Amino acid sequence: MSQASQDNDARVRLGPLAQDLPFMVRNLQALLRPKGQAIRDKLDVEAGVIGVMSIIWLNPGVSQNDLAASVTLKKSAVTKLVKALEARGLLERRRQDSDRRLNALTLTAEGEALVAQVRADINVVHAELFEGVPQADQDTFFRVMGLLIDRLAPTADGAGPDAD
């Protein structure tokens, strides 16, 4: 085997980068992006829609303000997504009886069907991604991610990425 061939086969040592959260998350995100894009393409939805619709599915009647606070999107991006989803017939906005300034968001039957398809597709992706990873390790992974999100969320300035 030539030296060039051996060099290409050698793994690059990550050293402290293997414990560098931004570095590892950025790499994981890059590796996961094509899988997420395939689901979005199949269902003809844009970035941010799956999370927004899933939050509404889990919290029928959620206010638009609470929805924006629960996802890492700016309020303006959530407003844009909500209007687009309403125009597609996937969700409904209703004035809340308790505060007429706030909208309660619920999915339509078509929106519910879309979320059911998303969940099925994501379950397939998760099964593939976590093949061979013990359930306890999966649970720990998501528990720690949840702890980090809970810890960082109060310090966020609401300037998450737009869904544009």
TrEMBL record:
Keyword set for this entry?
DNA-binding, Transcription, Transcription regulation
Q: What superkingdom does the record give?
A: Bacteria
Give a Pfam family name: MarR
Quote one Gene Ontology molecular function term.
DNA-binding transcription factor activity
Q: Record keywords: Ribosomal protein included?
A: no
Q: Does the keyword Transcription apply?
A: yes
List, in alphabetical order, the GO biological process terms annotated in this UniProt record: response to stress
Tell me the PROSITE patterns matching this sequence. HTH_MARR_1, HTH_MARR_2
SUPFAM superfamilies cross-referenced by the UniProt entry: Winged helix' DNA-binding domain
In terms of InterPro entries, this protein maps to: HTH_MarR-typ (IPR000835), MarR/SlyA-like (IPR039422), Tscrpt_reg_MarR-type_CS (IPR023187), WH-like_DNA-bd_sf (IPR036388), WH_DNA-bd_sf (IPR036390)
Which residues does the UniProt record annotate as the domain HTH marR-type?
14-150
Q: What is this protein called?
A: Multidrug resistance operon repressor
| Recorded name of the encoding gene | mexR
